[in-house]
Design a protein that fits this description.
The protein is mostly helical and 294 residues long. The protein has one domain (4-279). The protein has 14 helices and no strands. Residues 284-294 have low confidence and may be disordered. Keywords: Membrane, Transmembrane, Transmembrane helix. It comes from Stutzerimonas stutzeri.
């Protein structure tokens, strides 16, 4: 099967995720951030997810543990990342979250038996170098880890585990794998909102349809990403999703007050090159055909 479609969908979904800071900033301006936002958006999506998951229960039941892992890891990664971005420094959070390719490549090698080729490792290192250049790593970033830093690391690890579980649960329908993290995020937010004393603000008609529009965008992008990681090796998928970082940093620089510098362009180019290298099909082993003995 050609990997062109899953790669294209995975990159497209990752870019949409990278532009997610735009609605997040809008909602923050009206006092809707962190767990309350997760509860509203993913609670709305859960109204769609739960009936469909129940309808497909006979298909995913044999791999129910895999689906549970997708819900917990994917939902936990979303909740942790949204909270980290709300309370921490965005640059540090994104940098620590994008250690995810490391976990993805190593996890695919350790747990799924994927080949750790020199080309794949080189693409990973190139992607990390591109991340460093894009974010403009400096001495100020090397500080003791704070609570938001740990949340970003947990989010990156959870996202990588979600990708590994998605690939391993190969008999679970795509719809179930797409919708399970929504339910996981909503349940985690429902537990954490009372614990943290954070609750959603009063909803207006305008805010309600904006939340619904964001939920629809998240649904479509998640479906694209889940299709991609279901049909690609974990190591390759982990490098391709770095497009989210490129989209986030460059779009914020383009639309914000910060000008795009040379290091951002070089970093974006390196990440793109790494993604192309990672998506290059592995060379099949040569088969030696021996002449029959006479």
């Amino acid at each position: 099967m050609s990997t062109l479609l899953p790669q294209a969908l995975l990159v497209s979904g990752a870019i949409v995720w990278g532009l997610g800071w735009l609605p997040l900033h809008h909602f923050a301006s009206v006092g809707l951030v962190g767990m309350p936002l997760v509860l509203l958006v993913y609670g709305l999506l859960s109204l769609i997810a739960v009936p469909l998951l129940w309808q497909q229960r006979s298909a995913w039941w044999p791999q129910r543990n895999g689906l549970l892992a997708i819900a917990v890891c994917g939902g936990g990664a979303t909740a942790a990342l949204v909270t980290a971005l709300a309370i921490g420094d965005v640059v540090r959070v994104m940098l620590l979250f994008y250690l995810a390719p490391v976990w993805g490549v190593l996890g695919g090698w350790l747990w799924l038996g994927e080949r750790l080729s020199v080309l794949r490792v080189g693409a990973l290192l190139l992607a990390l170098l591109g991340i460093a250049l894009t974010l403009g790593i400096s001495r100020e970033l090397i500080q003791p880890l704070s609570g938001s830093d740990w949340l970003a690391l947990i989010a990156g690890l959870g996202f990588s585990l979600n990708n590994l579980a998605t690939r391993a649960a190969d008999r679970v329908p795509l719809a179930s794998k797409t919708l399970a993290p929504f339910v996981g995020s909503a349940l985690i937010a429902a537990l954490l909102c009372p614990a943290l004393g954070e609750y959603p603000p009063p909803l207006t008609v305008a805010l309600s349809w904006q939340i619904a529009l964001m939920a629809l965008g998240w649904l479509l992008s998640m479906a694209a990403v889940q299709y991609g990681v279901s049909h690609l090796e974990a190591g390759r998928a982990a490098v391709l999703v770095v497009f989210e970082l490129v989209a986030a940093v460059l779009s914020s620089a383009w639309l914000g007050a910060q000008a795009i510098g040379t290091h951002e362009w070089i970093g974006a180019a390196l990440v793109t090159l790494a993604a192309l290298i990672a998506s290059w099909p592995d060379r099949p082993a040569l088969t030696v055909i021996r002449s029959p003995s006479i």
